[in-house]
Each structure stands twice: as structure tokens, then as C-alpha cells.
Amino acid sequence: MNVIKTGIPGLIVIEPRVHGDSRGFFMESWNEERYRELGISARFVQSNLSRSGPGVVRGLHYQYPRPQGKLVSVLEGRAFDVAVDIRTDSPTFRQWAGVELSAENHRQLYIPEGFAHGFCVLGDSVLLSYLCTDVFYAEYDAAIAWDDPDIGISWPVSSGQLSAKDAAAPLLKEVAADALPRILP
Description:
single chain; mainly beta
């Protein structure tokens, strides 16, 4: 397994070992013991799938006060996947990292609790899978603007098809500090 550091502690790209031949491939998408050796001690309690069509941008989403860590991978298609550190007491607050995840490259992005997450579809569609460290609570679901200029994400698209929630999402500076996660409780 290969690990690529993003420059934000805890946020890593994982390239699992893929065993392939003319019939296809096999890979472990999660192995608690092996991933713990990489520094991921998360306990995943929910698994989600998301299918999106061409031009779709989702995010930047986060849960608070019940934050979710996520292990994200793409099962079909390609996506530019992004995580933003929104922990107000973090030295990397407001910093982001993005990576192309695809069915072909088999990469995974581990996003610790306290980060906002989003992605855009690269191509016709994408089927995204993510394991979560906490269950989804609609009352704790929140978003910040995907194109917030203070964050400055270098998206590979200039516009996107957004949900009503994402189109109305505030800038990070418009969110009260007590409505954002912290490293220390």
C-alpha cells in the first residue's frame, strides 16, 4: 500500500495494492489492521453510495456537532475529490487538498473528522463510495460554498450543477465559529 501525504496532517491519499490479471482485479478496500498501521484508527459505522451525472458538484458538506470521518473511493467513473480543514483551532484551518479518484486508479482519500468534503464529476458520471465514522443526522448536516474565494479551491470546473442546498451554502467566514468543529473539544 502506498500513502501520499497531502500537507494537512491526517488527510491522506491511499493507493491500495491491486492484484489484477486478464480476468479483472482484487483489492482490499478496508482492512482495519492494515489501515491502523497507516494511522487510521477510525471505526466506520455507515457505508454510503452516491451516483452523480455530468457537471455535478456536491459539497462542501460537513456534520456538526457530530462530525464524520470518511474513507472515499470511486467505483465507477472519475471525480475530483476535495477536503477542507474547517476545525477552527487547527493550524491548517481553511486549507484544502484535492485528488482525482477513479475506478481506474483505485485511490482512496481518508478525510478525518472536522473536514468539509466535496467533489465534482469528471466525465459522464461517477459512483462514489464512502465509509463514515458516524451515522448521518439530518439536523447536523451543513455546507459551505464550494467556490468560497477565501478557501480558493482549484476546481477543474468553473461552474457546476448544484443542489438547492449547495447553491445557498454560506461562505466559511459567514458561519459562526461555534457552529464549526474544533480539534480539542
